[in-house]
Amino acid sequence: MCTAATYKTKDFYMGRTLDYEFSYGEQIAITPRNYEFDFRFAGKIKSHYALIGMAFVAEGYPLYYDAVNEKGLGMAGLNFVGNAAYEEALPEDETEVSQVAQFEFIPWILTQCATVAEAREKLAAMRLTGTAFSEQLPTAQLHWIIADKDSSIVVESMKDGLHVYDNPVGVLTNNPPFPSQMFALNNYAGVSRKQPESTFAGVLQLDAYSRGMGGMGIPGDLSSQSRFVKVAFTKLNSISGEEEDESVSQFFHILGSVDQQRGCCEVTEGKYEITIYTSCCNTAKGIYYYTTYDNHQITAVDMHAENLDSDQLICYPLLSKGEVRWQNK
Ligand SMILES: C[C@H](CCC(=O)NCCS(=O)(=O)O)[C@H]1CC[C@H]2[C@@H]3CC[C@@H]4C[C@H](O)CC[C@]4(C)[C@H]3C[C@H](O)[C@]12C
What we know:
By secondary structure, the protein is α+β, with helices and mostly antiparallel strands. The protein has helices at residues 105-110, 116-123, 178-184, 224-236, 244-256; strands spanning 2-8, 12-20, 27-31, 37-39, 43-45, 51-58, 61-69, 74-79, 98-101, 126-129, 142-147, 152-158, 161-166, 171-172, 266-268, 271-272, 274-282, 287-292, 295-302, 314-317.
């Protein structure tokens, strides 16, 4: 399972957790403006917006899980197993719209679009194909959140076509499809950050017997639907200062509300999903912050500290070993 969220203070932040039972060996990858993308069907793009994000680099190609571009548009792919369905690639002369392989979707949008509005235009004239990157890396069943500082959308390619939904909460998890996730929030209309009031039944006076009962009724399990509700509540009620350190700290607390601890979620015999990494990107400044399961110290990579006019990928391996800061020795 994975969870993605957006957060706005003075700047706009976007990030995700990646929950899985193993890691592909992903890295922070910066794609500078002149790295040439040779898309499977859509031709070459030689010069484009620069990107920073988390990617598995295969044969020199950044297979992005999540990224933002230098214009402040961000995107993340999350598992959508059982519901994602992609198109068969058609010969070029049989289609008028762009064909984009699912593994190219993030670079295809982020190299060319500065805003969600521009992304929508691309989405209106494209088909997402199930083309695999390689035999070793078969097609991933994903859906995506795309966001800028003003709005957020979800893209789901399903049997009945490509869906683009407004995402008023700026949150995405996995299954079921996004409209069902949103609908489920209706079941929590009565939840509040305040102490509960006794409204259960007129004849029964119930007592708020402890402090700190805000959010009473929010689910706490690790299912996708529950994480959606939990993180939506946390994000939408979040209060933090406007400054960078305060905003980033708060962002990690928002996603921390759906952190997965090893042992709580068995996916196959003896294999447990954990939160491998959590990211938070300042989309205005192009800074990618992250923590890993064993490294809670926030680490950051700034795209603008690199030569963004280069044509070579720039990669930083994840610092995944945590350190204890001793105070008395
Ligand atoms: C496993 C992850 C989802 C985590 C998640 O949601 N776990 C909950 C499972 S569940 O919800 O409980 O079922 C997803 C998220 C992004 C994916 C990569 C996207 C690029 C590339 C696309 C290629 O086509 C195949 C290889 C490729 C590197 C992909 C590998 C893998 O698929 C990644 C890491």
